Amino acid sequence: MTDIDGALLIDKGTGWTSHDIVARVRSHCKVKKVGHCGALDPNAIGLLVVVLGKATKLSERLMEQDKFYEGIVRFGETTDSYDADGNITATSPVPPMTLESLNEEAKAFVGDILQEPPMISAIKVDGVPLYKLARKGKTVERKPRLVHIYRYKFTDYMKPDGTFKIACTKGTYVRSLAHELGANLGCGAHLKQLRRTRSGSFDVAQALTIDAITKMSPAQLAKHVIPIPELTRPQ
Known about the structure:
The chain has helices spanning 18-29, 59-63, 99-106, 130-135, 174-185, 210-214, 218-222, 228-231, and strands at residues 6-12, 34-36, 45-52, 67-75, 77-79, 88-91, 111-115, 124-125, 128-129, 145-158, 161-168, 189-199, 202-203. By secondary structure, the chain is an alpha+beta fold. It starts with 5 loop residues before the first strand and ends with a helix.
């Protein structure tokens, strides 16, 4: 299956890095060129668009597409990574909130915002990933990046957890939004769970798990590869 060109939609499970998924697909499909179109943190789940062969040339174009997520914010606990993978650095009582008041607070993040990347991230400063500096106890200045939030809405709130849906541009750190929302509320917060549901026109409902993919024969898997002409079709 060495001459395969196109994309696979994968429903990434928890514990896998995006690099792990790429390596597994490369090994199973025996394709030299494999890439992904927007990484997910190890404990984030959901849609990962993986490109193979000549389609890797389209990775930047596909990465530009808007992203859609759903997840849970845990209020009252702040972590050093802004998500559940990190160490708790502070706890505070959660103030009285309703779903309506929570959504009023979330409105502050809708539109164009400047977002400072968290220290525990893969962004490089002088060639060194920030997370490596963070492990050494170092904090460095990070250049804020402009992102756009189309929608940030909580659909349920049961203290101390709020369930939300968000639509945003690529490069948005959803865990930073959770951290900043908690700071605004005065109680702190972190991202407890995150699932990517869509990337551009691709939906997680179309995706396969990595276990399902690795059990397929080349002929079976070929039926699930999105061809290049379909990838380049205007959205």
